[in-house]
Amino acid sequence: MPSSPPAMTTRASLTDLVGYFLYLGTLGFGGPVALAGFMHRDLVEKRRWIDEEEYGLALALAQIMPGPLAAQLAIALGYFQRGILGATAVGLAFVVPSFLMVVAISIAYVRYGGLWWMQALFYGIGAAVIAIIAIAAYKLARSTNKRDPLLWAIFGVLALVTVWAQAELAEFFVLAGFVALFARARPSRRQAVTYGLGGLLVLAIIWLTERWFVNLTLGGEHVLLQILVFFAKAGAFVFGSGLAIVPFLQQGVVQQFGWLNQHQFLDAVAVAMITPGPVVITVVFIGYLVAGILGATMAAIGIFLPVYLFTIIPAPWFKRNRDNAQLKAFVQGATAAATGALSGAVIVLAYRAIYDLPTAAVALASLAVLWRFKVPEPILVTAAGAIGLIVWPLVKGG
Fold first, then answer.
1. Is residue 3 part of a domain?
2. Helix axis angle, 357-372 relative to 377-397, nearest 10°?
3. How far apart are CA 386 and CA 366, in angstroms?
4. What's the rounded Cα separation, in Å, for the pair 303 and 77?
5. pLDDT, tens only, 146-168
6. Which residues on neighbouring strands pair with residue 68, listed in sequence order?
7. Over 80: is that where the pLDDT of 220 sits?
8. Helix (H) or strand (E) holding 40
């Protein structure tokens, strides 16, 4: 097992951070699991702009607070490095490239009446993405949990829970944090009571937030306002992986408002998977189909504004107390839970993306190539997409 990077890090300039997240937003394929792994690999291991402790703090914050993982992790890292300006600049740099790509695809989709080749591309790319996120999840778990039995136990439990529930459950991240806190930091009786009550309050807030936002409706017929409020509700509802938003969106977009039919909605999900950057960028495609470029813009603002606020509001407290032994223990537990949930998500996604011999072959070949060679992910994704374009018509025709 390779040793951890040295404690000494070089603080990145704002220009460096923006440049990196522009790159990641432009070429970062693989969904939230892979993107979190890329940030760790590039910022902690290679460039050493961020130390393990700060990355773990940001990852724990991103998992505990509502919001899609990748975008929230990026914003949290930007905040810890360069404050509000860093969080804002990094968030925009990460989101804008994929926003522009999805708008371009949306224009083509509307003009040409549907994109059959999108399904063909995703047929190959989806299988390759499983290999990418599997490698990323493995490296992240190994680096985070090291040889700590407690952290690996938490990892295992959360992986199983995620596979069983088919979703990442925020409540378990909080519980895992408290398990590590009580096992490692040994609070006094008074502190234990305080933390216990605080934990119950957090769990109650999560529970109430989920149900309140699910049941929230908007009166009136102004479609742009409806789009803004609906996607703000979605951004505040999602915990963990951005993929968790898909069932919620399907219910609102297809069943409640009737903005898209089922086929169009599946195309929207495919757009999110074949474009780099955060998975929740699929809302831009939906917004465009409903109300053009203004609809796409309102959808993007709606989905990412709660993510931004739910990161920068609690971040100062996390930063001020980062040296607190009990917070460190809590963060260790929550981060181990995050790695377990991400690994469980790989299994859930694999079940959906690998369903016949061609997709299994692409996934295994991609895994072997990534394990043996240092092939850049965009090259692998391009090759898998080309295979999908060739094989999909044969499979569909058969």
1. no
2. 170
3. 13
4. 19
5. 889 999 999 999 899 888 887 66
6. 240
7. no
8. none
Q: What is the DSSP string of 45-64?
A: IIS-SS-HHHHHHHHHHHHH
> Pick from 71, 134, 124: which is nearest to 276 by CA?
71
> Token pair for residue 182?
């009580």
The reported pLDDT for the residue numbered 124 is 84
The β-bridge partners of 383 are none
Residue listed under structure tokens 């792994």? 37
Residue 37 phi/psi, 5-degree rounding, is: -65, -40
CB 170 within 8 A of CB 63: yes
The pTM for the full model equals 0.72
Domain residue limits at 300: 14-397
Which residues face 240 on adjacent strands?
68
Q: Which two tokens stand for residue 158?
A: 């959360």
Task: State residue 259 phi and psi, 5-degree precision.
Answer: -70, -40
> Is 1 part of a structural domain of the chain?
no
Please report the DSSP string for 234-290 in residue order: HHHH-EESGGGHHHHHIIIIIIIS--S-HHHHHHHHHHHHHSSS-GGGHHHHHHHHH
Least confident range from 211-215, 253-257, 350-354: namely 211-215
Which contiguous run of DSSP H or E holds residue 67?
strand 67-68
Lookup: tokens for 113: 């009446």
* Mean pLDDT, all residues of the chain: 81
Residues 6+ apart with CB under 8 A from 133: 30, 31, 33, 34, 37, 342, 345, 346, 349
Cβ burial, residue 372 (10 Å; 0-12/13-18/19+):
exposed
Say if residues 341 and 154 touch (Cβ distance below 8 Å): no
Element (H, E) at 68: strand 67-68
Query: Quick one: average pLDDT of 62-76?
Result: 83
Q: How far is CA 277 from the centre of its chain?
A: 9
CB neighbours of residue 129 within 10 Å: 28
Task: Give me the number of domains the chain comprises.
Answer: 1
Q: Is residue 220 within 8 Å of residue 243, measured between CB atoms?
A: no
From residue 333, give the alpha-carbon distance in Å to each of 147, 157, 277, 390.
14, 12, 27, 45
Q: What pLDDT, on the 0 to 100 scale, is given for residue 264?
A: 78
Whether residue 17 contacts residue 117, with contact meaning beta carbons closer than 8 Å, is answered with no
H helical segments located in 146-222: 149-165, 170-184, 189-215
Question: Tokens standing for 257?
Answer: 């408002």
DSSP structure class, residue 66: S
